Amino acid sequence: MHEIAEGVYFENAYRSGNVGCAITAEGAMLIDSPMLPRDAWDWLKKIASVTKQGIAFLINTDYRIERVLGNCFFPTPTIAHQLAWIEMQRYDEGFLQRHFARHKERYPSIAAHLSKARVVLPELALTEDMTLYKGERTFRLIHVGGHTAASIIVHLPKERILFTGNVVITGEHPSLGEANSMQWLHALELIRQMDDVDIIVPGYGDLCDPPATEILTDYITKMRERVHEYYTNNYTRREAVDKVKMRDFFSVPSQQREEIERRIRSSVERVYDEFKKGTEKKRH
Prior knowledge:
Layout: E1 2-5, E2 8-11, E3 19-24, E4 27-31, H1 37-48, E5 55-59, H2 65-68, E6 78-81, H3 82-88, H4 93-106, H5 108-114, E7 124-126, E8 130-134, E9 137-143, E10 152-156, E11 161-169, H6 181-193, E12 199-204, H7 214-232, H8 237-243, H9 257-283
Parallel strand pairs: 4-5, 5-6, 6-7, 11-12
Antiparallel strand pairs: 1-2, 2-3, 3-4, 8-9, 9-10, 10-11
Helix pairs in contact: 4-5, 6-7, 7-9, 8-9
């Protein structure tokens, strides 16, 4: 548990990504939840070690299962975008069993822990930006989309801290499998224009500052350019997936190679479909 400003913490030790906590006189405000029960219990213990006021709210930055599955372990109302609420309604028993099966195949040691989790829908949903005032702190929830249609970022202006969820990740390949790539580029530009942010807590990876998001912009831009080249030359989506290479941006540990390759292929497919849908709209 790392304190990055007085009473503001993040934890980067969990498989499902970074989570955040800001202590207020009216309870702790949490940003995202760990997916695994053992990580959730650990996070709850760490929160209890720094506040006796309990938990006020849990904010989900998007609907991705690794961000929201752990909500059930936290006794507090959750907040997310309305589009996240809609998407999470699809997480029925069949979806969860398929999710558990994939993790059982890849990570057998955690499968039993996952089976204890269940989906809890957000109790509060925003459709536009929202500002929350808890104790002495201000929390700006800004809908930016990009990584997913429901992606929001959480800004603490007085502390000059921004929790971005997966809108920003550092040191590894981003997932564009559910993205709007142009909207994502706009979101990153918005973040760089925020003059009251010194520290970014990304969804994965190390802390950074706004200028450090340029590499992510470069990655998405280059992927769009490479996919567009093959698309305009009438390559099929499968052919584009086989030809577009992105591994030159980040090194890939050997144990993660298969997972990262799947992520890149899914991202290329998504961007290819974006160009295809754009062309089809122009025809009508």
